[in-house]
Amino acid sequence: MTMKKPRIGILCGGGPAPGINSVISAATIEAVNSGFEVVGIRDGFKHLIAGAVGETELLTIPYVSRIQATGGSILGIARDNPTVKEPGAADPGWRMTRTVQSIRELGLDALLTIGGDGTAHSAQRTCEAFGGKLPIVHVPKTIDNDLPLPGGKSTFGFQTARHVGAQIVENLMTDAYAARRWFFVVAMGRSAGHLALGIAKAAGATLAVIPEEFERDLPIRLDDVVDVLDTAMLKRQVSGRPFGVAVLAEGIALRLTADDIARVQPDCERDAHDNLRLSELHLHRLLTRLVKERFKARGQEATIVAKSIGYELRCAHAIPFDIEYTRDLGCGAVEYMRQLMRGQHAEAGGMVAITEGHLAPMPFGSFNDPKTGRTLVRQVDITTESYKVARKYMIRLEKDDLADPAKLAALAAAAKLPPEAFVQRYRRLVELPGAQAATR
After folding, report:
1. Are residues 147 and 114 in contact, defined by beta-carbon separation less than 8 angstroms?
2. Which residues make beta-bridge pairs with 244?
3. Residues 43, 109, 144, 401: which is the catalytic one?
4. What is the DSSP annotation of 57-116?
5. Which of 278, 311, 350, 440 is surrounded by the fewest CB atoms within 10 Å?
6. Mean pLDDT throughout 320-341?
7. What pLDDT does 350 receive?
8. Eight-class DSSP state of 380
């Protein structure tokens, strides 16, 4: 009589990131070699919520042994959220109820999820729905690098996305020089500017603009963002180099005031949670239009090309760093799962992390914001030496430009303003937190 093998499920939620297939490969190989049966669940939580338990496939070592460098996800990926409740429904939490039923129908003894903060939250709530009796391990994934991993460790996919993004921006820098024009490039990063800053710094872009450089917990004024770009272009113009590339984090748009958005794009769509659809705002095109208008009002002409990069990065083939890293994470996730199943931890599940080469799991709840209960967001720390170095290599308005009479006169002339009016118009930029932190 043969005993039934313990069965684990693997699913991927959120958006694609380089290295997903490497996690699936490493976890499957380690699990099968440890006596598990591995079931791949297609399209994240989508089919579990729908009760479509047939949307699965058995994962074997021959199937996954050579997928570690490939982009995308062999299991597909989706953002469906089992934690969403519908007030007024007979069962407001029917999505989670159905998810639990589906997992039971599949006969899973444990679940491994791969995703960002949203998927981590769904994994935690699913674990709670099972009363802690189903071990769930989450593998942190996002090119935004905004999950609070110990030791400042990057989330998998970030390094590859930065690598590919830097190559793209390097090419744009060459084009900008050759054609004497500007590129405004918006990079992904809803809640943090790690990717935009990392790409700009690695590629030697003219400047990067990220949400963290503005006042924390306050809306960002659209005019401030336009001023940053305007003055950077004026400085380049004065130096005889009227070209460059500015890389901006898409998350800037999420912090713009409602009045600013209504003024410049009143028909911008929002989702069911009243969140701005960044893909509909087209921040790169909006800023291009506004800066061109600024130059035109001065009787000048600016050649600017709007560019958005993100989708080009998410399904790139993983670079060796991310392949090695995700092998550690996939194997570590199964080891953590085994420990949970043996009762070696007080918790029923958590997020896997690697610190100094060692497994360092983080129990569910330990990485949550106590105010919201959601996963904490790791933002760019503008007090670090790394940020200061990035700022030193950017071309943008500095305190010295306003204090030095010769520099001020040249910039004011380029802006067609008296020096005093230039100072009054743009002084705020050198008083923003990012500028202050860079000079400390």
Report:
1. no
2. 182
3. 144
4. EEE-HHHHTT-TT--S-TT--B---TT---TTSSSTTHHHHHHHHHHHHTT-SEEEEEES
5. 440
6. 96
7. 95
8. -
- Mean pLDDT value of segment 120-131: 94
| 410 touches 238 (CB < 8 A) | yes
Domain locations along the chain: 7-156+318-363, 161-314+380-394
Query: Is CATH 3.40.50.360 correct for 161-314+380-394?
Result: no
Q: How far apart are CA 64 and CA 323, in angstroms?
A: 14
Taking CA atoms, 314 is separated from 195, 198, 218, 279, in Å, by 12, 15, 30, 15
Cα–Cα distance for residue pair 311/309, rounded to 1 Å: 6
Q: Is 144 a catalytic residue?
A: yes
- Residue identified by tokens 């062999």 is 74
Q: β-strand 182-187 against 244-249: which pairing, if any?
A: parallel
C-alpha distances in Å from residue 354, one per residue of 69, 225, 330, 336: 20, 37, 11, 11
Q: Name the 3-class secondary structure at 179.
A: helix
Q: Is 349 exposed, middle or buried (0-12, 13-18, 19+ CB in 10 A)?
A: buried
Is 7-156+318-363's fold the same as 161-314+380-394's?
yes
What confidence score (pLDDT) does residue 104 get?
A: 97
401 CB contacts (<8 Å, ≥6 apart)? 235, 407, 408, 411, 430
Instruction: Give the pLDDT of residue 272.
Output: 43
Q: What is the pTM of this model?
A: 0.92
Spatial distance between the Cα atoms of 139 and 333, rounded to a whole number of angstroms: 7
Query: In a 3-state reduction of DSSP, which class is residue 287?
Result: helix
Mean pLDDT of 51-80: 95
Show Cβ contacts of residue 406 under 8 Å, excluding neighbours closer than 6 positions.
none
Record: fold of 7-156+318-363: Rossmann fold (3.40.50)
Both tokens of residue 248? 């901006």
CB 16 within 8 A of CB 39: no
Share of the chain above pLDDT 70, in %: 96
Determine contact, residues 67/25, Cβ cutoff 8 Å.
yes
**DSSP E strand boundaries for 243-357:** 244-249, 304-309, 349-351, 354-355
Neighbours of 276 (CB within 10 A): 19
CA distance 57 to 252: 40
